[in-house]
Amino acid sequence: MSDIPQERRVLTAIPGPKSVELQARRTAAVAAGVGSTLPVFTARAGGGIIEDVDGNRLIDFGSGIAVTSVGASAEAVVRRASAQLADFTHTCFMVTPYEGYVEVCERLAELTPGDHAKKSALFNSGAEAVENAVKIARAYTKRTAVVVFDHGYHGRTNLTMALTAKNMPYKQGFGPFAPEVYRVPVAYGYRWPTGPENAGAEASAQAIDEITKQIGAENVAAIIIEPVLGEGGFIEPAKGFLPAIARFAKDNGIVFVADEIQSGFCRTGQWFACEDEGIVPDLITTAKGIAGGLPLSAVTGRAEIMDAAHSGGLGGTYGGNPVACAGALGAIETMRELDLNARARRIEEVMKGRLEEMRAKLPNGAVIGDVRGRGAMIAIELVKPGTKDPDAAATAALAKACHAEGLLVLTCGTYGNVLRFLPPLVIGEDLLNEGLDILERAFATL
Ligand SMILES: *Cc1c(COP(=O)(O)O)cnc(C)c1O
């Protein structure tokens, strides 16, 4: 790991003068469609700290969107990827293969739920993994329809835009979208009309009714769901929802795909979030946390489903790049050695305790409507006092106040009113608490 002191340090305004200068160059050279949460330019990062070009050290509650769970310069990732880099950067696995790719697939077979025979295919991005899961499910079932859920997020390519629920900013103006994609309700406990205790049973019944009546179960190739919804607002489907949908898929020969791209690899305190209710998906898509920051993604699943696509039907020039595979092996080694599942559960304990305290302390019109999430995937949903009306303005103001104090936080949610916390799992507890102190003070600025 790079030896960055694990201490917050704010020396300049945030962003500082050097970042402002770089931002001007960026605005001239980089397409406007690529945004940034906080235009602070990074010099180095590691543990729970991002150091910028002005020498400021920010506490990282984002992990580059749930990617650097082992830190942004984890020793085993740097060591293995550097060694691989010196040996060779690329041959293309489809031209002459290499061991690292096979080893990552072996690890995926061990770590993902279920003791059935499993195989994997590797790609570069999360969206690419989801696209390939759809290809594989269609080849296996010889059906075309794909079912996804309200508030779901699956990427920015053409097919995955169709799978994604939210229009702005992901889809607006970018259509037409791929056909044969159908969206059904999800058990969003906090906003379910009859309350969270009924959401699991009622939402699954509604979703299944829509699938059978509007699509026809016999036409459905795949049902794709995030076991904890990420961009949509860190929504844990109410208990009972996922098992009901998984059972329905099984009974109807539909491939059940868990999109664990954000929730996987120790993020929720288990290797995969679907383990929480004992779900064994037919296919799992992974990316983000898999390789300590290097671009890698995978589809893993039942061997007979994974083998349904003909030879040459899957792949890509860079898929399973050897340096990224070495990074993944280093990240997995780190997760095992440091028991990052236990670390994630401890982060949940600290964060939820503090956030509930903050909610209790806020004057009667508490703006914190809901505290939720699992492991180190925790969020608060902000609402107008005394209502459940989403308060996107308060959310943006809180994020801004945190940024000014050197705490990097991200927002999400269909209504833009969720503040989400995704610290690296290796963050020190003192930094974690300091970040929460900053958040607490930010509430006073509202
Ligand atoms: C981020 C994300 C994706 C897309 O991954 P990219 O690497 O950005 O293409 C897909 N699904 C989920 C659940 C994600 O969080």
Tell me briefly what this model is.
With 446 residues, the protein is α/β, with parallel strands linked by helices. The chain has 2 domains: 164 residues, Alpha-Beta Complex (Aspartate Aminotransferase, domain 1); 261 residues, Aspartate Aminotransferase, domain 2 (3-Layer(aba) Sandwich), CATH 3.40.640. It has 13 helices and 15 strands.
Task: Report the C-alpha radius of gyration, rounded.
Answer: 21 Å
User: How far is the first residue's CA from the last residue's CA?
Assistant: 37 Å
- Structural class determined from secondary elements: alpha/beta
CATH C-level label of the largest domain: Alpha Beta
Give the CATH architecture of the largest domain.
3-Layer(aba) Sandwich
How many structural domains does the protein architecture include?
A: 2
The helix content is 25-40%
Q: Indicate the proportion of strand residues.
A: 15-25%
